[in-house]
């Protein structure tokens, strides 16, 4: 992410975390000792694959960062990895199987791929010996976080999600078709993913993702995880960007109504011209590329 976006994103993340912990304020950027740059890159054997993760900090509060579609820890969460307080948090940013450096295998999208990601994510944190974890999920990572919180309520302490949806509508599938061809994406969004994957894997996987997410439209009520929302027990903050062209506002409102005790925050973001020109070409799924507070 750009440096300006990074500092704003880090401040916003500290605010979101503090919102989930009434009475305790997350410290602002402080001495270098609290915000050191030491980051461990490693892999762990989990459920038959080797999952890559970045780890930093030594705080008692374990936080797992869950990236969006085609994303990875390094591409989606650079500011959080760098700036979250290392004394308060132990931060882990993972690459779901088939994404980032969790390859092989290549990414595939069976109808239970979100359930698979949720199990992988929780089992990764258990493999790393964390007793409990808070989840920060962006886009597809938000969906994964919802499922993980519902399936493993005793293991998930708190949760922040943004850009997530619990079901797929006809309107959604029209939007998804608009991002199928990655050659039409804006350059700022496309370049980091091309660098990570190479164009062929990037383009092929995006097409497979569109087909994979559209599977849910044919299920009852288009459900991805709507039946699981009442099972979420942890304090949950739902964030929605008012100008997000890929996730309409009604999805955030639905999550808020069905996740018991959740809080909803609508954020007004300023859209850059390049995003306006590529509204239907992958311009707003990633916080690193075209959106800034």
Automatic annotation (TrEMBL):
Tell me what this protein is called.
Answer: Biphenyl hydrolase like
Domain of life, per lineage: Eukaryota
List, alphabetically, the Pfam families matched.
Answer: Abhydrolase_1
One BP annotation, GO:
homocysteine metabolic process
| InterPro entries the UniProt entry points to | AB_hydrolase_1 (IPR000073), AB_hydrolase_fold (IPR029058)
Question: Where is the AB hydrolase-1 domain positioned along the sequence?
Answer: 62-192
Query: What Gene Ontology molecular-function terms does this entry list?
Result: alpha-amino-acid esterase activity; serine hydrolase activity
GO cellular component terms given for this protein = mitochondrion
């Amino acid at each position: 992410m750009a440096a300006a976006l990074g500092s704003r994103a880090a401040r916003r993340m500290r605010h979101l975390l503090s919102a989930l912990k009434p009475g305790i304020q997350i410290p602002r950027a402080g001495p270098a000792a609290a915000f050191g740059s030491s980051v461990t890159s490693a892999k762990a054997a989990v459920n038959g694959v080797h999952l890559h993760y970045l780890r930093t900090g030594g705080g008692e509060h374990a936080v797992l960062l869950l990236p969006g579609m085609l994303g990875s820890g390094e591409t989606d969460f650079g500011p959080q990895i760098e700036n979250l307080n290392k004394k308060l948090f132990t931060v882990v940013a993972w690459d779901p199987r088939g994404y980032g450096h969790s390859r092989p295998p290549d990414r595939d999208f069976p109808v239970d791929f979100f359930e698979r990601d949720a199990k992988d994510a929780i089992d990764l944190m258990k493999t790393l010996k964390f007793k409990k974890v808070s989840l920060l999920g962006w886009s597809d990572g938000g969906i994964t976080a919802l499922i993980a919180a519902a399936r493993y309520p005793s293991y998930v302490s708190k949760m922040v999600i943004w850009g997530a949806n619990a079901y797929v509508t006809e309107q959604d599938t029209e939007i998804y078709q608009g991002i199928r061809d990655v050659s039409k994406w804006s350059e700022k969004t496309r370049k980091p993913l091309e660098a990570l994957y190479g164009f062929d894997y990037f383009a092929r996987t995006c097409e497979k993702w569109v087909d994979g997410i559209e599977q849910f439209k044919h299920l009852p009520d288009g459900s991805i995880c709507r039946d699981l929302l009442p099972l979420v027990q942890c304090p949950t903050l739902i964030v929605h960007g008012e100008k997000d062209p890929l996730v309409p506002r009604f999805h955030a409102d639905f999550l808020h109504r069905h996740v018991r005790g959740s809080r909803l925050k609508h954020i007004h973001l300023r859209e850059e011209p390049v995003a306006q020109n590529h509204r239907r070409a992958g311009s707003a799924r990633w916080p690193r590329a075209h959106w800034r507070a």
